[in-house]
Each structure stands twice: as structure tokens, then as C-alpha cells.
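The data are quoted verbatim here:
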Amino acid sequence: MTPVVLHPEAALVETGLEAAAEVFKALSDPARLRILAHLAKNPRGACCGPEPGVCACDLEAVTGLSQPTVSHHMKCLVSAHLVRGEKRGKWTYYHIDPQGFALIKAFLPGIGG
């Protein structure tokens, strides 16, 4: 069987589609949408200090989920480039990553959005 060789432009398009699929997969969970909405409305967290970003412990209260479950959702959002996490001491602070949202804005007009 002959391997399929993609034209460089086709490979670039395929890479973009894979990245877009990862972003939309991350957006498909209600808890993740709740987290994103909270991060967008509250760029500073409530409980762990004045630093920019929302502490992971704040997200447990926002979602009503356990720490391991919140961590799983944050890993998905970070992997999709929708959220950035910054470790400070024993806490991780999260904020919106514009890179993933730029991908959404670029992708949707191409399919009629």
C-alpha cells in the first residue's frame, strides 16, 4: 500500500483542523464553559491573593467539583490553548489564553460563522 503524502498546504490545513477540533472538544463540556466564563468575568481570583489570575481553589467553588476533577478540566483547557496556568508557590493561577480564541475566530468564518 502506498502511503498518502499530503501537499504542504494540505498538511497545514489538516494541522489547523486538528487544532480547531481540540479547541471545540474542550468547549463541549459545560463545566469547562463555566470555568471559561468565570475566568473571563474575574481576571483576579478571590481567595489566594492579589496576583492576576484565578487560583485553582477558586474554581472548585465555581464549579462545585472536586479538586482532581477541576484539575482534569484545566488540563483540557490548557492543552487546547484556551487557558494558561502559572504556578506560584503551591498554587496555580489561571487566565484566558487569547491564542485558542484567535483560532476560533479564524476558523468559524471559513464555515459560515
Summary: The mean pLDDT is 82. The first strand starts at residue 54 and ends at 55.
